[in-house]
Amino acid sequence: MTAYRDQYASLFNEGQNVVLIGISNDPVEGLGSWLKDADFPFLFASDADNDGATYTAFGGGLRGNGMVDSRAVIVIGPDGRIAATIEAFNQNDPMAYEALAEVIDRVTPEPDGI
Fold first, then answer.
1. Domain residue ranges of the chain, discontinuous segments joined by +
2. In what side-by-side order are the strands of the sheet with 43-46?
3. 23 pLDDT exceeds 60?
4. For residue 91, what pLDDT is reported?
5. Which residue from 14, 15, 50, 89 has the highest number of Cβ atoms inside 10 Å of its Cβ?
6. Is the dihedral of CA 36, 38, 39, 45 positive or negative?
7. Which residues are CB-contacts of 69 (< 8 A; sequence separation ≥ 6)?
8. Looking at residue 91, what DSSP letter applies?
9. What is the CATH topology of the domain spanning 2-107?
C-alpha cells in the first residue's frame, strides 16, 4: 500500500471523491501503528474480531478458512456506493495499481479543465 500512497496524486487524480478502504485480518493495534507511521491517504479496517462480517458487508467473499483475503480493497465511488471489491490486492504488483486506477477512472469524472 505504500506504492499506492506514493503514487496517489499522479495515478488517481488525488482520489477525487473516492474512498478507498483496505480490509485485512490484521489486528486493529497493528494496523493503527502502521497507519500512523506511514501517513496513508485512505482508510484501513480490521476484520480480525468480526469473523469476516465487516468485509462481507462490503460484498467481499471470504477464503475457505473464513478469513479476508490478504489486503482486500473496497472502492467507494463519489455516489457513496461500492464501486469495486478487490478481494486480493497485491501491493507489490504494478498491474494491481493499474486495475485499481481503472476502477477509479470509471467512477470519477474528469477534473474540470481537462
1. 2-107
2. 43-46, 19-24, 72-76, 82-86
3. yes
4. 77
5. 89
6. negative
7. 60, 62, 63, 87, 88
8. T
9. Glutaredoxin (3.40.30)
Helix (H) or strand (E) holding 105: helix 94-107
Cβ 44 vs Cβ 29: under 8 Å = no
Q: Quick one: cell of 5?
A: 500512497
The cell for 72 is 482486500
pTM for the structure as a whole: 0.74
For the chain, the 3-state helix, strand and coil shares in percent, each to the nearest 5, are 40, 20, 45
Under 8 Å between Cβ of 4 and 91 = yes
Segment holding 83, helix H or strand E: strand 82-86
What is the pLDDT, as a whole number, of residue 17?
A: 77
The amino acid occupying position 52 is G
